[in-house]
Design goal:
Mean pLDDT: 95
Strand content: 5-15%
Order of helices and strands: HHHEEEHEHEHEHHHHHHEHEHEHEH
Shape: globular
Low-confidence stretches: none
Number of strands: 10
Distance between the termini: 39 Å
Helix content: 40-55%
Bound molecules: glyoxylic acid
């Protein structure tokens, strides 16, 4: 077994273990991937201040995220198709997160259903929602999340329509995955994946299965999104959602100070600064670039979470320095799951925690809750 001590190692293992169509769905972004690259580049461009002769014999990593205790300032973000990266992927991800003591957010576009994840863990999890044209479907999903004792609802607002990820149609990405002449060689070289996922039990959208039957069995993610997602949604719908979901509400996909003020005025519990991992508006800014202006705009009234390019504990520390309460991982989660299942996710979380702990110490800081811009040059 090779030594795995970075998210890049897990990514490389994932690349070798799952079909290209699935790997590239996670690994790539929209159009020319300018924004995808900016997410990474702008994080890398930030420079820490090394501080010395400070007592750093112990670090406190615990915090709260959307009011929930977390053993580090990190949550597993909602990712589509997770159960195609590893059999029962969402259940395994939720289990690893629970054992680690951080929140797990299940995507509407998951393979394992809300009920599957409920059965896999004891504690609460978060559920991510898209608003659909058919509001009765949203009501049904919200009711299912409530029955499953989800502790927060995360409404994704940056996908009224979908940005094109050019690889997906070229790779013939289909749900459920299909064996074709074109991908036969690729799939034959990933026999464990084929056995467990291609011929496994859970291979399609667990939350949508019934509805998809009624809508003619659409097979691609983009077809489903174009047909079902509601492009008319405005801030008014927050009120509608609030009347059905009295619990915690997080808005994901804010990338502008003005939108952050509107979200805050709508009374949401937290916002996630996100450009959907560079998968939507290409040419938009990186998330780390807009984080400070969003934090200023909400002026402590609303908690700010962060995602987009987080691949290390150092990245988490940079986001905390610029005012985020915590981060979400998407790609890093999917790589680790594809690489080694639940053990892989646990490994990724351990790597991120150690990197964060050591970087905290080397910047002369002991508590994730007191990180400020002082750790940056
Ligand atoms: C779904 O949310 C995606 O980005 O593919």
């Amino acid at each position: 077994m090779p030594i795995v001590n970075s998210i890049a190692d897990l990514r490389e293992l994932a690349r070798r273990r799952i079909p290209r169509a699935i790997f590239e769905y996670a690994d790539h972004g929209a159009y020319d991937e300018v924004t995808l690259q900016r997410n990474r580049r702008d994080l890398e461009a930030l420079t820490f201040r090394q501080r010395v002769m400070v007592d750093v014999s112990s670090q406190s990593m615990t915090t709260t995220l959307a009011g929930e205790q977390a053993t580090m300032p990190l949550a597993i973000g909602p990712t589509g198709l997770t159960g195609l990266f590893h059999a029962n992927g969402e259940m395994l991800g939720a289990r690893a997160a629970e054992a680690f003591g951080i929140p797990f957010c299940l995507s509407t576009m998951s393979i394992c259903s809300i009920e599957d994840v409920r059965s896999a863990i004891k504690g609460p999890f978060w559920f991510q929602l898209y608003l659909m044209r058919d509001r009765s479907f949203n009501e049904e999903l919200v009711a299912r999340a409530r029955d499953a004792q989800c502790s927060a609802l995360m409404l994704t607002v940056d996908m009224p329509i979908q940005g094109l990820r050019r690889r997906d149609p070229k790779n013939g990405l289909a749900i459920p995955p299909r064996l074709t002449l074109k991908n036969a060689l690729d799939i034959a070289s990933k026999p464990t994946w084929a056995l467990k996922v291609l011929f496994g039990k859970r291979r399609t959208f667990g939350n949508l299965e019934q509805r998809m039957k009624n809508t003619g069995g659409l097979t691609t993610l983009s077809q489903w999104i174009a047909a079902q997602f509601d492009p008319t949604v405005t801030w008014r719908e927050i009120e509608w959602l609030r009347s059905r979901w009295p619990g915690k509400l997080i808005i994901k996909g804010v990338l502008d100070a003005e939108d952050a003020r509107l979200a805050s005025a709508a009374g949401v519990d937290a916002i996630v600064v996100s450009n959907h991992g560079g998968r939507q508006l290409d040419g938009g800014p990186s998330t780390i670039f807009v984080l400070p202006e969003v934090v200023d705009a909400v002026a402590g009234r609303t908690e700010v979470l962060f995602d987009g390019g987080v691949q290390s504990g150092q990245d988490i520390l940079k986001a905390l320095a610029l005012g985020a309460r915590g981060c979400l991982i998407g790609k890093a989660f999917l790589y680790s799951l594809a690489a080694m299942g639940e053990e892989g996710v646990t490994r990724a979380l351990q790597i991120l925690r150690e990197e964060l702990r050591i970087s905290l110490a080397l910047t002369g800081t002991n508590d994730v809750r007191s990180v400020s811009r002082d750790v940056l040059r």
